[in-house]
Amino acid sequence: MQLEAKDISFRYGNGPWLFQGINFTLEPGEVVGLTGPSGRGKTTFCKILAGLEKPVEGRITIGGSVISKKGYQPVQLVFQHPEKAVNPHWKMKKVLGEAGRIDSELLSSLGIEEEWLTRWPNELSGGELQRFCVARALGSKTTFLIADEMTTMLDAITQAQIWHAVLEIAKKREMGIIVVSHEAKLMQRLCHRVVEFK
Ligand SMILES: Nc1ncnc2c1ncn2[C@@H]1O[C@H](COP(=O)(O)OP(=O)(O)OP(=O)(O)O)[C@@H](O)[C@H]1O
User: Which positions fall inside the ABC transporter domain (predicted)?
Assistant: First the structure.
């Protein structure tokens, strides 16, 4: 089922319009890049797609139906800074628990070591923590993943390992992905098409 944004307009409070009348679709299994200058509203648009921000106009649907606020959210978002996305008072096993049951194959494909599960978030490196955020976003009910600068702060090897694992899973599950990045080479390598936010 397709993820569809129809006639989306948004502004914060009474501020200027960030964007108006945006139409966008993402098919299952499709990898689409989102690029454009800083501050144009890419992250805001991603939040709207994931139901974290309400559009002023327009609607988001999956297979023609508005996504319910209750229960597991099928559109999952991973941001650049994992330390802002996890509860510092929860050990990693509990952090992962938010996604429901996570299979150990997924954890090992993301390079997550068993021993890390008993640690606190501040006992992991940024790259290690981000692997957990990716794993958490890939619960079995996720149908679309939004990667907003997901690997920007990581070294090339970690970046490659994470994307390899994510793309394998996406292929297996026919999951659609949005990649937000300023790195043209990464976009070229990963995406079927790229949309520019002007
Ligand atoms: N909660 C908020 N309240 C008011 N303004 C906001 C809020 N969040 C973001 N903005 C503003 O909205 C604009 C768009 O921000 P957004 O983060 O969506 O842009 P972006 O295209 O993702 O930028 P970047 O490429 O730098 O990440 C910016 O000018 C930002 O200052």
Answer: 3-198
